[in-house]
Structures are given as structure tokens and as C-alpha cells.
Amino acid sequence: MEMEHEAAIVRSAEAIRLHRGHNILIESGAEPVIDRLARLDRPVPATPPELWGWTFVVKDMIDVAGLRTTRGSVLYGSEEALTTAPCVELLERAGGLLVGKANQHEFAWGVTSENPHWGDVRNPRHEHLAPGGSSGGTAAALAAGIARVGLGTDTGGSVRIPAACCGVVGLRPRAGAVSAEGVAPLAPMFDVVGPMATSVADCARVWQALSGEAVPPPPSLSGLVVGVAEGCAQAGEFADLGAEVREIALPYDILSPYWTIVGAQARRTHEATYPKNAASYSAGVRRKLDDAAGIGHREYRRAVAELAAVRARFSAEMSGIDVVITPTLGGPAPRVGCDEAAVRGEVGRITSVVSALGLPALAVGDLQMVGRGEADVLRAGLCREARGGAIPEPR
User: Fold this and answer.
1) Does the annotation count 101 as an active-site position?
2) Strand partners, 179
3) Is the peptide bond before 327 cis (omega within 30 degrees of 0)?
4) Residue 356 has pLDDT above 90, yes or no
5) For this structure, is 288 an active site residue?
6) Residues 270-282: what's their mean pLDDT?
7) What whole-number distance in Å separates Cα of residue 46 and Cα of residue 165?
8) Is 282 helix (H, G, I), strand (E, B) or coil?
9) What is the pLDDT of residue 49?
10) Which of 134, 199, 352, 355 is catalytic?
11) Which residues form the Amidase domain (predicted)?
12) Catalytic residue among 12, 28, 59, 288
């Protein structure tokens, strides 16, 4: 067991070296994060825990005691975190080995993970594409072999969009299903921590470590009713797995109140530093914060009421449907050097609807499965994967 443990660290270190120019990790401290492992006392347990020897990275919105949390900005990270976020503690308790803090879109607000402070994250799997955002560094670390699994954050698609762009898997849980303690906020009503991996099976095992919920793969999807939205190309696969498929439309009218709430909450999140320190923000995040200026409590309350009404209506429309499948990306994956402001609306239009609805979703590359509970989407993904379903490539 100890040899496997050490081999995993060596593989991560070699991958970090090979991909040093891809700006995948943020190393803001005195020593590389992976070097901390040599100082940790990890006796070999008699019974190895669930993730024994699994390497992982965490997005740099998440606190780890003794490391800096930059939020992808130059305004934060001058002091080491005093405590470790519970979501990280759970993975370490399960045997996971933290090998890096992952780079990201500044303040977790963007779909490309271009970062003027820490370098633009590059996509190891598709060099002409951005890695997606905002958890682009976490997805890129998995695609590069730097880590086996990782933790990202997702407000409007920040776990799922990078999963699609980098060809990996990411789960957006329901709000509150994973503790957000020790995680820097963007828009707290919609912010969640989600696991990422290179397979649904690994993602399900990380989910078990985070939640205590084991999700065994079903032999088929017989008896499952699957709603197909946006002409999802994998509808036939789910029918072949035994599911009944029906068409369903997504409620895009939820996006107006959703973006009002996100903008208003983001302004509050940044009120101590913006606009006072506007010069230290990237132009893209400045523009988003400026666009959200002036949202008052009356407009905010109206948006919250509208959001609740659309959620209730869609819940009724989803009656009798167990899982909804869609593409993950609302359009072509963002290209390297693209104008993020010009593409983010289309790229994230589907994932944002799902975030607004408050439903859990599993992205297997450019395939998104949406359900009422995390186990619903994981079971569907596990069954498809066990029967040879590949990770769909980004468009």
C-alpha cells in the first residue's frame, strides 16, 4: 500500500512538471503544495479508507490550513488559511492526497479560466479550446494526470462547463448538500462545491466520501423516464439502456431573475473591495460587477419571487420524469483567445438554467444529466458508463 501511495505522488509530480506551462495550478506559497506531503505523517492504516492514495486538487476558492486562498485574484492570498474547509477534510480523512490548488477564472466568475494574475489555464486535451470556467484548473489537472479527482465550485456551470471542455466528469450537487464552510462565495444562493473526476465511477466514490451516500450502478435503466431537452444527441443511448424517453423544454424565462440575484449577491460579496480596488480586478469581472450596479432590494425581492414561481412550474412539468438529459454546453466550446463576454451567455445558457432551478446535475463531458437527487444522476451516469458510454467531445 505504501508503494502505491508513493507512486501516486510521483505520477502527480511528473505531470506537474510536464504541464508547468499550462498554468493549471496556483502556487502562491513558499513551497509547492505537493511538497507538503513529505512533511505529513500518514501511517498506513490496517484497512485503507475509500480514497487511500488518490491524489486530488482543490479550486483556489477553497481553504486549506497553511496554504493561501487567492480566489484567482491578487487581492487575496496574502495570509495563510487558518483552517481547512470541511469538504477538503472529508477527502483527506478518506485517504486523499492534496497535490495542488487549482487555477481558475478570477473570483470564479467566467467561462474561460483566462486569468491575468496567475496565467490563462490551458486545456491539456484540446489545445485550441479554453478549458472552460470557472473551475478550469481543476478540470485541466484531471485531464493532464496531475490528480485523479478534484473539487470545484459551481454557481452557473463552473464545474460542468470545464468538464465538457476538458472531457472529464463533474457533479453539481444541490445547494447545502456539501458544506460551503471555508469556501469563498460568489453568489451564495447558488454556490455549491462539486466533485470532478475522469470517470463517473470515481466521481461517485468522491461523492460518497463527501456525503456518505453510496451509489451502486444499476444493471439497466428499465423503468426510468428520461426527458430529452435541446435535442440531446445521447437520447438513443438511454433508450437502449431501457429508459422511456420523452421530450421536455427547459424554462429559459428563469434566467432573468437568476442573473438579477447573482449580480446583486456578487456586488455584496465584493462590496469591501469594489469599486475601491477596481484597478486590481480584470476588465471582465469589472464589467460584470458594473452591470449589476443599482439592483435594489425591491428588484431583488421580485427576482426571488419570480425564481420560485418558475421552479414550481417546472417541477410540475417534470412530474413523471426521473432524469432530464441535455448537452452540457449551450453552444460551441470557447476557443483560446475568444472574447469571454461575447460567448459566456451561449456557452452557459443550459447550465445556468439548471443552477437556477436548484437541481443536481452530472456533466459527463458534453452530456448533462439533471435529476431531483444526486443519486438519480449518478446512477444514470454509472449505468451508461458501465455499458461502454464514452465521454462526449466538446463541439
Assistant:
1) no
2) none
3) no
4) yes
5) no
6) 98
7) 40
8) coil
9) 87
10) 134
11) 18-213
12) 59
Identity of the amino acid at 81: A
Q: Which candidate in 12, 28, 135, 158 is catalytic?
A: 158
Q: Is the pLDDT of residue 37 over 90?
A: no
| pLDDT of the residue at 4 | 76
Cell numbers 505520477: residue: 11
**Pairing state between β 97-102 and 55-59:** parallel
Q: What pLDDT shows up at residue 52?
A: 92
Tell me the C-alpha distance between 107 and 340, whole Å. Answer: 15
Grid coordinates standing for 343? 460567448
Report the 10 Å Cβ neighbour count for 223.
10
* pLDDT band with cut points at 50, 70 and 90 for residue 276: very high
Whether the Cβ atoms of residue 329 and residue 161 lie closer than 8 Å to each other = yes
Query: 134 catalytic, yes or no?
Result: yes
H runs (alpha helix) in the chain: 2-18, 86-93, 136-144, 160-166, 200-211, 235-240, 255-269, 283-291, 297-317, 340-347, 349-357, 374-386
Q: Which residues contact 142 (CB under 8 A, 6 or more apart)?
A: 148, 149, 150, 166, 168, 196, 197, 198
pLDDT digits (tens, 9 = 90+) for 193-217: 999 999 999 999 999 999 999 999 9
Q: Do 71 and 61 form a contact (C-beta atoms < 8 A)?
A: yes
